[in-house]
Amino acid sequence: MENLILCMAHALTSWLVSLGLSPWWADLILLTLQWTTIVMIITFNVLILIWLERKVAGFMQERLGPNRLGPFGLFQTIADTLKLLTKEDIIPARADKWIFMTAPMFFIIVAVLLYAVIPMGKDMAVVDLNVGLFYFISVGSLSTICILMAGWGSNNKWSLLGAMRSVAQMISYEIPLAFSLLGVVMIAGSLNLSAIVAAQHKLWFIILQPIAFVTYFIAATAELNRGPFDMPEAEQELTAGAYTEYTGMRWALFFLAEYTNLVAVSALASTLFLGGWLGPWLPSWIWIIIKTYMVMLIFMWLKWTFPRIRMDHLMSFSWKVLIPISLINIIITGAGIQFLRGMGW
Amino acid sequence: MFGKGLLEGLGITLKHAFEKDKTIQYPEERPYLQDRFRGCLAFDFPKCIACGLCTKACPNNVLSFETIKEEGAKKKKVQSYTIDLQYCLFCNLCVEVCPTNTLYFTHDFELSTYSRQDIKIVYHRPPELDLVVEGKEDESPGVKVELPDNSEAEAKRLKQIEAIKTVLGKNPQKSLSKILTSETDIAIMSALLSTDDKKLSKLAELLIDDRDKASKLAQAWVNKDKKDHSKEGCEQG
User: Fold this and answer.
1) B35 FRET partner, CA 20 to 30 A, in A180, A324, B46, B160?
2) B76: CATH
């Protein structure tokens, strides 16, 4: 079980080589297959996630959630997707056409790019990058540009306001997000995500870095534009924020990308703080799925509990609370490491 | 502690997430309705005395009815009664004002129809009402009649029997006074009839065909009953 997927990959490469392909081509085909698999998993995952979110929200409000189509309403999202696919694709007459049309595509591409470095099991990162965490943070912040593209291209005041809020939020929360991860990096001594997971085989970093975990969690919620920090798409004020003018499949792509980002951020949280694929009995790739889903459930729990925070509170919370706390956390961590080294650990 | 409120909120949602859901899956599950739930307004035709209080009480002119007055009769009869439910605001005023409890609310709340005409509920005078009161004025009238496919005369006779049976069941004193003399006998007879269906139908048949026989039979039953009771009394004594 443990090496099931790895063995499949090896078998495929050796079969391709035995067919007379050069190893370079075999690797290329394997890489393409890996990406296809990731995209398929993401799409399938989003179908489940939307259903799960609606179910969780329903249960918290003592409703049933979707329960008509398929077992426990599991196929509801499929029906919704089909509906979105058949909808008219409207492009506003005064919109900046190219920016408007390409924004959702870039958004989903950026979201999928995040998965390149996440180790989905032992030795199961698509690219085992030695600056993986750095890559994740930098690519992750690109999604804001796509939201800004959508907001600007729509030529609509709600869209632009939503996009600008999103940018302001991202700039403010990127800093505590990166700072909170620095503590982990300092302890692990590496930016490689697989190495960070390996460093947790004795003790998960959530125990060593609880403050960093909480800071990361809050900043990630804001980065994902999820409630209670969903100011960019606050429907009571901005209709749907940057997505107001989008219809049909373009809108669905934004939705897909948002949930994809949610999975990526949750996977990163479980990789950095919850021991990633480490765990007894079960194969590693099942462990990371379990942990990621647990983190996502917490994200949903938060979203359906807290009311939306005000924009100025959001800003001051980041600059006056989160950034000082994460800075202090870095100092304490550094001091602790130096102290323990001095003690001869 | 700072952030205690946030944790409390999380606790509340978590608690509710595992509680039983309040949703009723409507077409399959039916909601529980209280006794005094005001569903569709309904009309119990035989009880109506055509007083017109309901139409006066109604604020929206939902209710209307037609009456006829037969020659020689003292009272008007309701011919048809219309409830135009689309204007009804379910205020309960007509139900409160009705002296004979003719109007009442049912528990039927699925009132939508495909066309405007279907919303109106029209009650027509049931034909068996007129049959019951033949020759009598103050009978409490009968309800349902099953019509077998016999000849007309036979059908009419059966109808009459049926009507008298209901009359006997509902108001025995009055009809029994025509065949029995003493009040104690009438009381015993009515008690007997309420328990024994066979006797009831037999007596009803005889009442139509031959009143003398009916009175004899009734007297005989009453005497037998008296005897039984006195026997029981002796044994107990």
Assistant:
1) B46
2) 3.30.70.3270
